[in-house]
Amino acid sequence: MENKDIIDNLLQSWSIDTQKNDQEDMQIWEIRIISIRYRLYSIILIILIIVWIFNYILPKQESYQNSKQALQTIRTETDSFADKQKQLQIDIDLSQKIENWEEKILACINDQAWCEQLDPQVKSNFSEVVSYLQANSLSSKKMSVDEKMILKNINEYLTKKDFSWLSKNWGINKISIWDPTEFKSNLYYVTIYLNITFQNKDWLLSFIHNIERKINPQKDLRILYKIDEISYDLMAYEQKQNVDIYLKAFYYK
Fold first, then answer.
1. In angstroms, rounded to a whole number, what is the distance separating the alpha carbons of residues 164 and 232?
2. Which of 118-147 are b and which e, b meaning 16 or more Cβ less than 10 Å from the residue's Cβ?
3. pLDDT at position 1, please?
4. Which of 47, 119, 195, 226 could make a disulfide contact with 173, Cβ separation 3.0–4.6 Å?
5. pLDDT score recorded for residue 243
């Protein structure tokens, strides 16, 4: 009888312990499940927040920044409008004076006459005035650029030592005209390569002088040149030399 009681007590104790263990296991599983759910909810919430930020907050912020920048640009343009209007009027006045004083400007540049009598605005912007008078159109229906006009300008203007004598200053050995390149807005340039024989440095200086300090009297043959490169041996300045010259001819169309 005593053994049976002991066994019953053991079984009863084991049953109670088993129930307690099962209950504890269930509680642990419930806690784990709840923890997993909270993690999933947290992950989903983070994803939703990220989606909300990328689809709503960032576009709104970008739109705000763009609007702010546009408003700042408008304010800047508005503030500078008066200055631009004033400068435009100055440019218009200068261009009108160039047209009215063209003959005297040419006399000043080519013959050093009438220089003191020129308008003060013309004298204070003389380099711009010279460029304005030289700028021309080189457009051609048959070619990308009017090469005949360039060749005629070189032959009848750049290669003259004295316009009154009409004497050639040197001999041209080679001419190459490259394709046009856009410079800014409707302003273009074409690179020109020349190989010229100069008798001495004075002939070279005369060539440079025609480009930088003279204006072609023939208006329809004027071209605005800028010198890019000249290969000249300064040590042999008294000797005849074949010189490579690269020019840029600027024009509008």
1. 28
2. bbeebeebeeebbebbbebebeeeeeebbb
3. 47
4. 195
5. 94
- Report pTM: 0.61
Q: How many CA atoms, within 13 angstroms, populate the side-chain half-sphere of residue 154? A: 24
Distances (CA, A) of 216 to 6, 46, 133, 136, 231: 133, 76, 9, 12, 25
**For the chain, which residues make up each domain, given as ranges?**
1-80, 139-252
Residue 241's pLDDT is what?
92
Q: For residue 122, which of 133, 111, 110 has the smallest C-alpha distance?
A: 133
